Amino acid sequence: MATRRFCVLYSTTMQAVMPLCLSSWFVSLCFASCLAIAIEFSKQPPHPLPLSHHHHRTPPPPPHLYTPLALLQAMCHGCKCLIGPSMLASDLSCMAAEAQKVVAGGADYLHLDVMDGHFVPNITWGPPVIKHLRKHCPGVFFDCHMMVSNPEQWVEEIKDAGGDQYTFHLESTKDPAALIKQIRATGMKVGVALRPGTPVEDVLPWVDLVDMVLIMTVEPGFGGQKFIENMMPKVAFLREKYPEKDIQVDGGLGPATIEAAAKAGANMIVAGSSVFNAPVPAQVIATLRRSVERLGNGKKEEELTPLPPA
Ligand code: DX5
Ligand code: ZN
């Protein structure tokens, strides 16, 4: 009798306790997995580029940007995909013809890298060259990426030369608000660029005042460098906060790297070497565009821009 009573008591207790054990076991398992994922995401990846004394250090983005949300999010947005070949990679002995070739091949705008040999260790061109190019490309949007130490100095000249957008580096000015005002006064659009080592949070006070944020995916100064993929959390962070803002990426973009940028939410894609070194630039331009349409705008295969003949 006592044994039977024990058995009944035992089985009743087990019936009550087992689901609790199982559910707490399940909860612990979930907790442990989340913890493991969080630890994994907060590990900082190694720096991908050798650093020279000329170049600013490129620390990885702060650990909090590596949240599963920011990383796993394939943000769909409504921002139009715009592809801008970087003229730096063209044959500069016939710049006008090169520009016309990529415009005919589907480019939405031309990216013009102005370098002063001071902000970056390289020199390209300034307003006089842009002014001549303008005569050969009427109606084409000129996106001027100003890698210069004194961006306030060139605003009116770039406007007069035919610039449509003036993108200054946040690191190059003490007074971004005044510079933005100065650019606006000319009627040009305003872009603000961040070197790879500049934390994305630094741009937050200015985002509402500008038309576009450029997240550099190489150290500014040279074409043909390797795409720094760990800049993508910066893009995803901005895209999550600003679903309607133009976000540009510049450096190392091509068919091999576009998916990462498109998934993170970039909609303005600068591409130099990948476009100008291709046998058919129009193919590369369309490939980049299709990636942004598919992974950024969430379009279906049949809605994508068709690929031109090879
Ligand atoms: C680098 C420039 C880029 C460069 C991109 O300082 O801002 O615009 O020309 O060239 P690729 O696409 O070759 O990296
Ligand atoms: Zn550029």
Report the oligomer: single chain
CATH superfamily: Aldolase class I
How many distinct domains?
1
Give the neighbour order of strands across the main sheet.
1-8-7-6-5-4-3-2
What proportion strand?
5-15%
Order of helices and strands: HHEHEHEHEHEEHEHEHH
CATH architecture: Alpha-Beta Barrel
Helical percent range? Answer: 25-40%
Biggest beta sheet attributes: 8 strands, parallel
Backbone shape: globular
Question: What's the CATH first level?
Answer: Alpha Beta
Distance between the termini: 89 Å
Structural class per helix/strand content? alpha/beta
Describe it:
The structure is a single chain. The chain is of the alpha/beta class. It has a single domain (73-303), classed as Alpha-Beta Barrel (TIM Barrel), CATH 3.20.20. The chain is built from ten helices and eight strands. Strands 1-8-7-6-5-4-3-2 form an eight-stranded parallel beta sheet. Helix 7 (232-241) links the parallel strand 6 (212-216) and strand 7. The radius of gyration is 25 Å and the shape is globular. D-xylitol-5-phosphate binds at residues 86, 88-89, 111, 113, 145, 218, 220-225, 250-253, 270-274.
